[in-house]
């Protein structure tokens, strides 16, 4: 990027010759509101690769969807309202469809009136750009591999009944793209095309359940066939991959049961009226578990050979007829007595003193916490809906009408393997309580033969922490797993096990994982598509290992010697099952020393990944057109926002930039880039730190610096930071644009010393950064959020090198925090401390010195650094009391501290007004501390509770004026 340079002489004469007109302005927070950028996850490519679409627009306001031809500059744009969304393309790439939401102004108006807003659907012909729009659309779908049709499902009218049993069906239009003719199907509740697009399955849910059923429309003839009609509700249509069969659920009222009773339906051998149908409910059958029924929460599906239906079952509750009759009799008797009294009464009598009805007495509202609970009551409460919706995977074999319950109360976690020959079951019931206490995960692993139902225990007390679970090959017979530093395979058919990595002279223990986990594994990339090879990483290289472990080839050569590594594989083939080594495969590559990234190609049938390119950019999102030799990928660096490039050759050569992201960036002062420095921690570890340079950086000049910390951050050296209002307040691009340098050091941890490890790594990193001349040692601040907030609050108890600190949602007392609850999940922090980020073990009663040594509150008297605290009152990760305890301790010692709390917010700030407010306040604070700007009043004087509303109104007015 071109930048204007200003001489020292001119800097001494700020009012002469219009110098400031030559200097690009720094980014302001009001500019962030208007910042125009491409929205993440909105990119899509047409099947032939000739069209690319994406959504772009300001941080606040209305967006546009762009469709551009990849072979030339033909481009179209369409306003789509305030909600980001992408486009979908028809199989022949001649049409694109996308939703148009309400505008920003309409959304704000609707919030005031409490009225709903509705989406529209726009269909565009390519390249002619002819458009047709449909109103009040809730869903749409092109007709699979057949490019002729699009189905458009409309939202219900506002006047439609909304009670539980009201009909859910609405209009479905089948729109013929070429002729523009529409065919309306009324009262449709669900629809789904098969993969070929030749058949449309749909269900009807009409008023009074009149005509309800499941239907199949032949898209070639237009003939719809009623496969079943009933006074029932149908849902969860699920086509198989081939598109020649589907399964769904049906629910009926049943006088024996409190809730609807479900039936699973399997449709196959599609042939109009002669289509095959099988139904199974299981209720009242001898082979079916008592007090159980088909679950309405799962999605049923056919086995690959269409011999078996798989579905879930769950408890059903019988109506208590005797209790109901008794209650009815009492009600009738009371009603009769009242009627008789009314008939005979002549004048008012003394008010009758009624005896209290036991049913009217309030029940105690309480929770019983028992030490033997495998899951805390809080965890059970948080996971209550998951538990209620849980279903036990089961099967029904059509030929012999055999039901089998595969999962049960012990083997709840069951995974059906490919080909549906076997299932893998995981049982942690013997270890769940202890696992929730110390975080160390153990399981018993079983195989289940789905033909015979036989269960075989493969492993008892299998150590699952840091090693994951089993990876099953596409053939459903081979599986791989990790034990104690080595990977193994097993043949599920005969139970034979093989050591896959034992003969390889390399380590398969993750060298960078410093949590309290025994020998955490490197990555398992699964199996080849033919199930002959396992693809397993060591710390650098990718190995192709035969299923029996007898042969092993490094597909990446010897990246370890270059201090490089394979990052992972790009999944560019639709519906792939495993890595097809007969096709070109692409892998991300990374240089651990330089932080450069790149892409590598493993040609079809070859055994060596070829480096395509590696440089100071970040590459991701590689995609291939399903029906064309067109490749697209994203490229970014710390100066350039993510842009999409397209190439038409497998080597990705001569790639052409298609998008134009962040068009306003060139108007503002921007970071001058980033530098990577090496340093030695106090523990003797060789580490790295990233220094992001301020805008208009001049060599030899030192700058105010924010030290931002978490764990290892330098791997993101070349990543772009989009200007935004973050949930934690800090935005790298905003600070570098405003003249700050930003230092991000790596932190390596020693067990039982998380805080001291941060000190050992961060302080030397700051000193090394000061030695570069970039960082002004008298104007260095530190900031972190969550775990970074903890380390920030601890560091200022151990060092005075920072002039200011800001800690977001920090842990401050490791002793009290250890047994508090992580409310977002309902579990305790004990497991997090002992096997995850806390890195302290065992409990504080046996490790008091380490817990106290690493707790900020126990060193609070040594704090001399002013501190800005953020802690929200509904923080479900780090309990609010942690912030309160540190704030009150500092306040009691008359240390300069301000704590900000956003009411109702969780661990990170979610609401935009709050995110904007905190981002502004944090920068005001750092500007005062490091740039000698005036102190904000909320810092220097505070705000009286009675004056808070006026304070907020004043700030809102100032922001409005600025905009």
TrEMBL record:
Give the record's GO biological process terms.
proteolysis
Q: Which Pfam families match?
A: Peptidase_S9
The residues forming the signal peptide are 1-21
Q: Does the keyword Zinc apply?
A: no
Which keywords accompany this UniProt record? Answer: Aminopeptidase, Hydrolase, Protease, Signal
InterPro entries named among the record's database cross-references: AB_hydrolase_fold (IPR029058), Peptidase_S9_cat (IPR001375)
NAD listed as a keyword = no
The highest taxon in the source lineage is Bacteria
Residue stretches making up the Peptidase S9 prolyl oligopeptidase catalytic domain: 763-931
Q: Which GO terms describe its molecular function?
A: aminopeptidase activity; serine-type endopeptidase activity
Tell me which PANTHER family the record gives.
DIPEPTIDYL PEPTIDASE FAMILY MEMBER 6 (PTHR42776:SF27), SERINE PEPTIDASE S9 FAMILY MEMBER (PTHR42776)
Protein name per its UniProtKB record: Dipeptidyl aminopeptidase/acylaminoacyl peptidase
